[in-house]
Amino acid sequence: MNQPSSRTGTLLFFTSIVAVLVIFTMMFGARLGFWPPIVGFGYIRNYLNPIAYTLFSFSVLGLIYNLKNKNRKGILKTVFATFIGLALLSPTLYSLVKPKKRAPAIHDITTNTLNPPLFLVLDDSRPGAKNSLVYSGEETAKIQQQAYPDIAPILTNLSSIESFNKALKIAKDKGWDIVIEDPKNLRFEATAKTKIFAFEDDIVVVITPLIRQSRIDIRSVSRVGRSDQGANAARIKDFITTFNL
Are residues 138 and 68 in the same domain? Predict the structure, then answer.
């Protein structure tokens, strides 16, 4: 004789699927054109944990209920919902076990804090920008040097034009949107989006010829937010690593 389906299990099963869809929409809604990135970020910050805790709590109660009634179908559905709730809680649980280092309150990172590369095409009129492209100076430089002391210019034995071409190819391969490429002046400007929330950042890369060497400087600036959560530093480090391969 077939066991009747558990209404509680079915409800929690479909609720967990809806919860996942809602969370993914919050995270990637900006890429779909639903809202600006900062809106999706705010949704996640305000609603991820309440959704996860609620789903997990009710799923555990549903699992206990179905175990008590020995409803196999209900048990399977509520186990699924419980795991979904636990998965949604995993970032919070992980941060409790291994707290993430707080990112510094800056959004402008460069390999040259004394003479940061200038933006000549991108300006403060770029869409959605709240932050200026004017470097804020000594205070920002000091914070960066304390937080990211390993960020430094790339020095290479390649010629300046070879360095320019290699840097430009890396930028394109990484999916940056090239705004202007200027091989004559050995510089280019680009924009890039973060994988989650699709925050837009502006980038300038400048090559300086040296004796038997070339120097590559990079600057990456977030359009919104006082802190970039380490995104610009991570982008520059990744670029440097790729260039040096």
Answer: no
